[in-house]
Amino acid sequence: MRRSMKNAISLFLLSMGVSSLMAQTSEFKIDVQQTGAPIQSTMYGIFFEDINFGADGGLYAELIKNRSFEFENPFGGWVPFGNVTVQTKSPCFDKNPHYVRLSCNKELTGTGLDNEGFKGIGIKAEEKYDFSFYARTVTNGPIKFRINLVNSGHDIYETKEVEINGKDWKKYSVVLTPEATEAHSRLRITMLTQGTADLEHISLFPQKTFNNRPNGMRADLAQALKDLKPGVFRFPGGCIVEGTNLATRYQWKNTVGPVENRPININRWNYTFPHKKFSDYYQSYGLGFFEYFQLSEDIGAEPLPVLNCGLSCQYENDDPKENCPVDKLQPYIDDALDLIEFANGPVTSKWGKLRADMGHPAPFNLKFIAIGNEQWGTLFTERLEPFVKAIRAKYPDIKVIGSSGPQAEGEDFDFLWPEMKRMKVDLVDEHFYRSPEWFLNGAKRYDSYDRNGPKVFAGEYACHPNNRENSFLTALAEAAFMTGFERNADVVHICTYAPLFAHVDAWQWRPDLIWFDNLSLVKTPNYYVQQLYGHNAGTNVVPLTMQNEPVTGQNDLYATAAVDKNTNELIIKIANTGIQNRKVKLDLNGLSGGKHKGTVTVLHASDLEAKNTICKPDQVVPVVSEIELEAPAAEVVLRPLSFSVYRVAF
């Protein structure tokens, strides 16, 4: 936080209990009758990117790595034994042409395959898992396979057999029901019959997915998203949308249709950071745009897809040949128009029919589309403009999101905002990964923004301390900063913390909102800040001032207020970033005299470095208490280092 804060807190906590010291009283004036700007239902959302093994190995529930043998090393994730080769002749799927041929002639070792999963395969006892593959025999007669789950001690703890027959590709499946829980299993396939057979698209999927959907999401991770009560779900990411070159950019049309025939793509986080290189990091696209739209619907969020604008990542590639010329952008523009048709078009349209064929005849009711991630300069603006014109012409109700570049200020930012206004985009995507000091000093950021220009989409933000960890320090700084989002709800329409997920054994970037391993997850203090805002958004801002000024750090306090017209409640959010208890008088204009019942939810830690871990997930969690506030004048006492949310009935 502020420079001397951490040292002061350490001395303070050594010398006395924090509750024994009280600073001067502050007075907040809150006018419930002066209803202000509406708070958008999309205000507090989530941003997903396939970084830190967030999709394959994370949210996407598939447990087999490289299930179609399409990695650059076709045996990536697999250990073949015996006579196993990779083939491409007469494949089962044209977009995934590789498959394996297994031949068994009583080799001493046997013949088969062993898959490591994603840092192991997480299996829970007594739950059912669907094992499946496509296969054909090359030699005459049936061939039998044994399917094993093997634990980290190399012991077999589940066995089933599958027999295949016939020289045409067919799908075979069996249900595994292990009796043990194991975080680091392996899947083993062994031939039991002499002969030769081909295998393709080998899959192990829990039956228990989020909403029990086939090809669905890992239940606990998706439920954690729903529990945020998000207003919007941005996907499929940031930098992966751009790609390191145009060939590796994210192309949504490759992610729809039969899951077995979606071509894979190397993930740019495979190689971006040399010290965090994961050569086995690819995108299977099992989690594709249909699944993203469906997940948005399942968690109650508006879908917000981001598409490539014809540029490769400007950080990674300065080769002009890896940028699509402006006069050849039409295929990229068509992709955007076709995506809107896929989401909203009738079943009689080309792309609407595909959506229906995939199991969702009703439209997804797409309202937003973002073009480009965090590009900058004229390279970006001259490409964005034809997208805006084409979308406006065909789909005038769709809100188009532009960008202010990768920084929250500076030359590129100053160039892009006027350009976004000139093009009349609906929202401008701002990104900021900054220090705790920046967040605390930035609570006034949007107070002076143009009220008549495009609205703000704070599309990627997170507080980054020196150690880049998710601590209570970062969560409290974000809570303080976010009071400025709400107070300026007439300008800020969407905000999404980033990144969302990180596998504890395979991450490239931190901090992240939710950490997980193969069996469990941990919600960071930052998660709870987002959840408190999402669950307590309200419908309209109301004025909250101290000495006629917004509360943006005076006496270490940050505050905002809103009303919820649906529940007839006043919602007050206050971050106390100081090391003292703070007594606050509330002048509640517009509330009837007398006692008003409600609740206060407090997120607090006496140690700024406090964090939640897989082993200790509840070190920093919100605590809810019932309260009564006396109107028109009430008094509350704020704990030091706390974020408090008050809800009281009118």
TrEMBL record:
Signal peptide: 1-23
UniProt keyword Glycoprotein, yes or no: yes
Origin superkingdom: Bacteria
The protein's name: non-reducing end alpha-L-arabinofuranosidase
InterPro entries (alphabetical): Alpha-L-AF_C, ASD1_cat, CenC_carb-bd, Galactose-bd-like_sf, GH, Glyco_hydro_b, Glycosyl_Hydrolase_51
Entry EC no(s): 3.2.1.55
SUPFAM superfamilies: (Trans)glycosidases, Galactose-binding domain-like, Glycosyl hydrolase domain
UniProt keyword annotations, A-Z: Glycoprotein, Hydrolase, Signal
Domain spans labelled Alpha-L-arabinofuranosidase C-terminal: 459-642
Catalytic activity as recorded in UniProt: Hydrolysis of terminal non-reducing alpha-L-arabinofuranoside residues in alpha-L-arabinosides
Sequence similarity: Belongs to the glycosyl hydrolase 51 family.
PANTHER family listed in its UniProt record: ALPHA-L-ARABINOFURANOSIDASE 1
